[in-house]
Amino acid sequence: MPDEAVGKVITMLNRALEKPVDGLSADTKVLEIAGFDSLAMERLAGELQIELDEEVNPLAFAQVETIADVAKLLDNQSRSGN
Amino acid sequence: MPQTPKPQPRGQPIAIETKRFAVRSLTARNVSGAFRMWISNPTVMAALNMPPRRLSQADLERFIASYDDRIRYLVGIFTRGSGEIIGAFMLDVTPAHALVKASGFIGDRNWWGKMVFEEVGTGLFDEFFKNRGIEKATAQVWEKNFAALVPLRRLGFKVEGFLRSEIRAFDGSGRRNQFILGLLAADWKPYDNAR
Q1: Which residue of B has its CA nearest to A31?
Q2: pLDDT digits over B127-166, tens only?
Q3: What does the alpha-carbon distance between residue B143 and residue B145 come to, in Å, rounded to a whole number?
Q4: Which of A25, A54, A65, B146 is deepest in the core (most CB within 10 A)?
Q5: Domain membership of residue A63 as a residue range
Q6: Distance of CA A47 to the CA centre of its chain
Q7: CATH number of residue A22's parent domain
Q8: Which CATH superfamily is B15-187 part of?
Q9: For helices A38-52 and B146-154, what crossing angle results, to 10°?
Q10: Per the CB < 8 Å rule, is A38 touching B143?
Q11: How far is B147 from chain A (nearest CA, A)?
């Protein structure tokens, strides 16, 4: 997974969280991030939608485990959209 | 000539405690005005894709009586300190398949975002899997209902499918997609990270 996509997702996640979190990496499990709740997930979906300029694939988004999975989603969907 | 089925006796009510909550089958006695207020609250009911309704005390008692603690459960979430009700779970059992279908809501906004579903769900699914013979739990969730999706996934539910235009939106705004999520008793691990 390109570092650029992972970095973008970490930035988005920290915007989605009420309190930004240090030490996030590709392997971090999204549902285990301190303060990650339903509101943060909704905000993250919004961030992804702005980045992709289309709605994120709901089925894929609902199943993400790690930050790398979100980055993959971003990468794949932006490629298929181009 | 077909026989009228004999009415089944009520089952064993739910009565469990978690760190912060007492979780009990609702009865006409322990249900409070707060519960009736939530049923009339459009925001709370929207999470269940139901229109708000104004129920009289008699309506409410009939509604509660339709849950038998055997195949239909209506379970209240009460704070252990003050004993106030803050939300509810509805669980429908299909005995032939040892399956329970769950839904729920937190009516008291002060408890939103405080991992109530994770904590209460841990107690409830533990009870159903270990003591009530249930082998699988499922939930159907509107694709935008992150307030349900996040805790269900934390509890170990897997997204098993995406149901296109599965239900009519209660507000007449068209049809809604849903996720179907499932959790097998064989995979059950109580969630131990509730705040």
Answers
A1: B154
A2: 999 999 999 999 999 998 988 999 999 999 999 999 999 9
A3: 6
A4: B146
A5: 3-81
A6: 8
A7: 1.10.1200.10
A8: Gcn5-related N-acetyltransferase (GNAT) (3.40.630.30)
A9: 110
A10: no
A11: 5
Q: Does A41 contact chain B (CB < 8 Å)?
A: yes
Q: Is B148 exposed, middle or buried (0-12, 13-18, 19+ CB in 10 A)?
A: buried
Q: Are B100 and B138 in contact (CB under 8 A)?
A: yes
The Cβ-side half-sphere exposure at A31, using a 13 Å CA radius, reads 21
Q: Which residues of B touch A62 (CB under 8 A)?
A: 143, 149, 153, 159, 179
Model confidence at B189: pLDDT above 90: yes
Q: Following CA atoms B131, B124, B92, B169 in sequence, which dihedral angle do they give, to the nearest 10 degrees?
A: -160
Count of domains for chain A? 1
Q: What residue segments make up the domains of chain B, in order of their start? A: 15-187
CB-CB under 8 Å, A45 with B147 = no
